[in-house]
Amino acid sequence: MAASGTRHLNGIQTVSEKLEGACSTFPQHPETVHQHSDTEVLCPELIVDDPVDEKRDMYRFQCSHAGRFQCKYTSLVFEMSEKGEVLYSVVFWGSSYLDGVGQMQPAGPLYNINCFPHSVCKLHLPHCETDPDKNQPGLVVAHFTDGNVEIIQPLEVTDTHVIIDIKNLSLFGLLKKKLLKEKPIKAQVLLFYREITGKTKRSKLHMHLLPRTVPVTEVKKQFRQNTYIESTSECHLTPDKRYRPRCEPHRHQPTTEIFDCDYGPNYHPTFEVLFNGEVEELTLGLLDEHDQEVWQSRQVFLPGESANVPKKAKSDAEFVDKHREKLIEKASLVMPIADCLRSKKMITGEMHSLVGAATTPQEQMRTLYRFVDSEGRAVKEEFYKILKEKHPYVVDDLESGSSKA
After folding, report:
1. DSSP summary character for residue 129
2. pLDDT tens across 308-358, in order?
3. Which of 52, 106, 113, 177 is the most exposed place for a label (fewest CB within 10 A)?
């Protein structure tokens, strides 16, 4: 596994080299905000690990100084002893990992983490136990490397994280002892809406019951064709207990389902709420096997009829114009974008060469913008589509207004 991790880091090195000049005077990350006095919450970049399979992506952040940094998407916290670049991704527990851990079970996602030696000194892995101090769940960290597993005892278990010292990076995941009687954990209810094509208006709402440590971004990747509905998702659920939606008068299937504390690789919906005709909103909650509300009923507003229809060309082009400065600031995969435009004959070979001649991603994007502006609306529409593929999280943040623009 360590060799695989090294391959990831080396595979990105050409991107890092392009940023070398900027890193020497690297400013505070534009998306960084201070959570409290010694932790900075940041929005990492998306890196495509495998050009053939773009679902195999990684997160990347760069820091210019030692400190404590928390990932906005995964809640991982990195204590940096010096400036550096960190690459990480969510991978999945398989039998090859679990065979050697005895009477233990996953208590969080498995992460592949890589950086240059000695950059990260402590790692904080998020957990979803409800009372780790008074009711110690026996959390430990499994470190997989070169086909071996090392069990690491935590330095500290806080309300939200398990903290360990680290020397070598590769695969890390939380484990806990298997219990005869499961206890509640911190969980989340994620909602995805989908219209069903046909002669009559029909649609459905998927409800995913998941541990809170599963990143929403990882679930969204598997359901790009659906509309994610933001809601207050937090609740406490008990593994192996049955639950059912409260969604009267609408039907749902199945009638009840067991919460199985799933950490992937497939985040299948737990329930489907079915609609016939136009439905703009509903009252939705979640009940346990004793009909007690565990996720309080709330109003959920459903997307309009055009929510799953691709945006009109006008709005795509307007997005490119409106967010020019932020896209110049954030987009790092400029040459892959330019390659796509060149392959579609939307920019010339000379234009492509001038983009590549720029020394930083920001300069490359400014140059590319000049050519996109000169070529008209159709090129802007295609530029938007490629941005959506190469930098989905940046585009999603800007479209939702969550960016600190």
Report:
1. B
2. 444 444 578 888 888 989 899 888 889 999 999 988 888 888 889 999 999
3. 52
pLDDT score recorded for residue 18: 28
Residue 373: alpha-carbon gap to chain centroid: 31
Q: How far is CA 186 from the centre of its chain?
A: 18
Residue showing tokens 């008990």:
238
Q: Round the CA-based radius of gyration of the chain to a whole number and report it.
A: 23
Tell me the C-alpha distance between 7 and 11, whole Å: 6
Q: Is 303 exposed, middle or buried (0-12, 13-18, 19+ CB in 10 A)?
A: middle
Whether residue 122 contacts residue 167, with contact meaning beta carbons closer than 8 Å, is answered with no
In the structure, what pLDDT confidence band is assigned to residue 132 with cuts at 50, 70 and 90? low
Burial of 87 (0-12, 13-18, 19+ CB in 10 A): buried
How far apart CA 73 and CA 43 sit, in angstroms, is: 7
The shares of helix, strand and coil residues in the chain, as percent rounded to the nearest 5, are 25, 35, 40
pLDDT, one tens digit per residue, over 197-207 is 777 788 999 99
In this structure, which amino acid lies at residue 253? Q
Three-class SS of 297-330: EEEEECCCCCCCCCCCHHHHHHHHHHCHHHHHHH
Q: Is the peptide bond before 109 cis (omega within 30 degrees of 0)?
A: no
Q: What is the pTM of this model?
A: 0.68
Strand 67-71 relative to strand 39-42, pairing: parallel
Q: Measure the CA–CA gap between 24 and 32, rounded to whole angstroms.
A: 18
Could you tell me the pLDDT band of residue 112, with boundaries at 50, 70 and 90? Answer: very high
* C-alpha distance from residue 212 to each of 58, 108, 127, 287, 397 (Å): 20, 9, 8, 18, 21
Query: What are the tokens at 40?
Result: 């900075």
Name every residue whose Cβ is closer than 8 Å to that of residue 289 and which is 6 or more positions away in sequence: 241, 242, 243, 256
Contact between 361 and 19 (Cβ < 8 Å):
yes
Report the C-alpha gap between 171 and 10 in whole angstroms: 17
Q: How far is CA 42 from the centre of its chain?
A: 13
DSSP secondary structure letter of residue 241: -
CA–CA gap between residue 178 and residue 104 (Å, rounded): 5
Q: Which residue has the tokens 């920001």?
A: 362
302-307 average pLDDT score: 65
- Determine the longest span between alpha carbons in the chain, in angstroms: 69
